[in-house]
């Protein structure tokens, strides 16, 4: 009878070969990862700017805009001017982002939000990210919209109940 690891049934030699091969394969991968992490860091300030448009393509003045680097959580904000233009202020520093990070721009106008995202590619220094609402933004705010919707739902409910009871033909 042989003990484990000694004699003909030894598993140590094949295990040593597998570990040696795995180590040889991992060393180049680790070196590539370290090089990528170094070259992907931002090298200077990044200015993010753009326009906010309504669903018909008209600029929205007074929209609150928040620019966020998703990976780091760093954010900055601004408000659109009469031409619908915003600029994140202050600019993002090299420590706030890296190439390949996702920049998310969220516009809030009359309590309605719309967002757009883009990736930082090759440390451009300046990025334009526009936001366009895909639906009509109510001009009177959400309270009026809520009241009109509630009134319509109430009228439909009254009509349905009255029709069921036979009061309306």
Provide the descriptors you would attach to this structure in a database record.
single chain; flat; four-stranded mixed beta sheet; 169 residues; alpha/beta
Question: Could you please describe the fold and organization of this structure?
Answer:
The chain is α/β, with parallel strands linked by helices and 169 residues long. The strands form 2 sheets. Strands 1, 4, 7 and 8 form a 4-stranded mixed sheet that branches. The longest helix is centred in the N-terminal third of the chain and has 29 residues.
- Determine the number of helices (DSSP H or I, runs of at least 4 residues): 2
> In which range does the helix fraction lie?
25-40%
| N- and C-termini, Cα separation | 97 Å
Oligomeric grouping of the chains: single chain
**Strand fraction:** 15-25%
Number of strands: 8
* N-to-C order of helices and strands: HEEEEEEEEH
Radius of gyration of CA atoms, rounded to a whole number: 30 Å
């Amino acid at each position: 009878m042989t003990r484990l690891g000694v004699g003909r049934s030894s598993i140590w030699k094949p295990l040593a070969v597998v570990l040696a091969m795995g180590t040889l394969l991992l060393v180049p991968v680790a070196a590539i990862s370290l090089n990528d992490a170094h070259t992907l860091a931002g090298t200077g300030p990044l200015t993010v700017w753009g326009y906010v448009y309504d669903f018909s393509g008209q600029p929205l003045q007074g929209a609150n805009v928040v620019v966020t680097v998703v990976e780091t959580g760093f954010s900055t904000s601004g408000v659109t001017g009469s031409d619908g233009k915003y600029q994140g202020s202050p600019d993002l520093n090299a420590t706030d982002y890296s190439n390949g990070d996702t920049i998310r721009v969220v516009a809030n106008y009359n309590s309605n939000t719309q967002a757009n995202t883009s990736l930082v590619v090759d440390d451009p220094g300046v990025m334009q990210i526009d936001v366009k609402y895909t639906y009509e933004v109510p001009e009177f705010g959400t309270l009026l919209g809520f009241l009109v919707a509630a009134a319509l739902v109430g009228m439909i409910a009254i009509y349905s109940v009255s029709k069921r009871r036979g009061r309306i033909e």
